[in-house]
Write the structure tokens for this entry.
Amino acid sequence: MRIDNELGERPIRSLFFKYYTPALISILSSTLHQVINGVILGQQVGKEGLAAVGLYGPVVILFIALALPVMIGSGILIGKNIGAKKYDLVHNIFQFATTIALLFGGIIALSAPFLIKPVANFLAGVDNATLVKNISDYMFWQLIGMPFFFLGMFWGGFIRNDNAPNIPKNASLIAVSLNIILDLVLIIGFDMGVKGASLATALSSFTSVLYLFFYIRKGRNHLSFRNFRFTLKFTEWRELLNLGLPTFASELSFSCGLLIISHRVVPYGPLAVSAFGLINYVSFILIRFFTAAMIASLPIISFNIGAKLPLRVLAIFKFSLVFTLALGSIISLLGFLLPDLLIENLMKDATAEFKQIASSGIGLYFLLFLAAGPNYILSAYFQSIGKSTISTLINVLKGFVFIALLLMILPEHLHMGLNGVWISRSFAEILTFVSVGLYTIYKREIYYSSAI
């Protein structure tokens, strides 16, 4: 079946899972770098090693946020222009985005020696010397490898939008396989601890980029290095940034919100900080099930917008929304029922006091999954149909505004203490989904019309 016929005619459910399954495998394989590092460090180094991986999460999300306007905007434009058969423009977008990925990643890599210590002190508190050192050690090679990390993100997304979802999946599987081997060699064999975990991930990311490079070089679809040149010139940059702005706001707000939560945990002591590292580590993995749903829906939505098939756009939006609601309910329930199982399998030195703090935190924090997936889908849908204002609003509300307000109210004013910190992000996601959902249903002729 031709690509045009498949994206424009194949039943929505089967089409969604055709993209969701490889996207999930790909993104979980990428996330598996963090899982492997965390599990091995948790067993070999202890809770400070695992916490270092978890606390690094908001930092990498912040850097991703700065690159996402170009990545997401370029991906949507590539999908639309493939649907509209404007292949020269597809090549121009690919050149521009690749240049940005290397330039921005290179700046971060060169800045690494100056960033790691102050950031680690902020995340762990200056009095927690062991955790500060572990975070610093983990950050160094992660930041040095940023150019390859960004290239993998950009190229993987573009290839997926070019109707080859299995290629990014294969690249991730190769990388994670190498990561396992290097973790065993560097962390256990050479006793490099947190530094070894970070170096293993950086080298694995480089390998996955090489795989994507050789695929693109073959020129099988619409992406090619033929007549390729690095350039910062792109005439449609305003449209690209407009499409990418909501995702930028999402990741930036998300990162800032997590940094605020992390900082608010510090006064409750080192055990609470380590517990947040564990909770953030686990939630960072689970949120990928919802990110994959957004990634799966975007190329289908963007193609059908370009092909002027609005009913199919609405159909994939509705299916994705229901799917993420159901999945989120299951994960939230597991957070209440099985927190101790997670703790016992991830940490070798978890005390009874630590288990009590972390178990309570997991149960409350995991409520965020009730609304996190639907908020991703709402934002992606509005972003794709050109309603960037409401998409940006969703991301700012759930990622920062509501979290900041709730952290001002719940811990002290409502005397919830640490539990108020844990539940702040969950309430922020739920409040955003309910408020934006009610508003857009009231204005359904603007946001859900078949005349998109």
The chain has 18 helices and no strands.
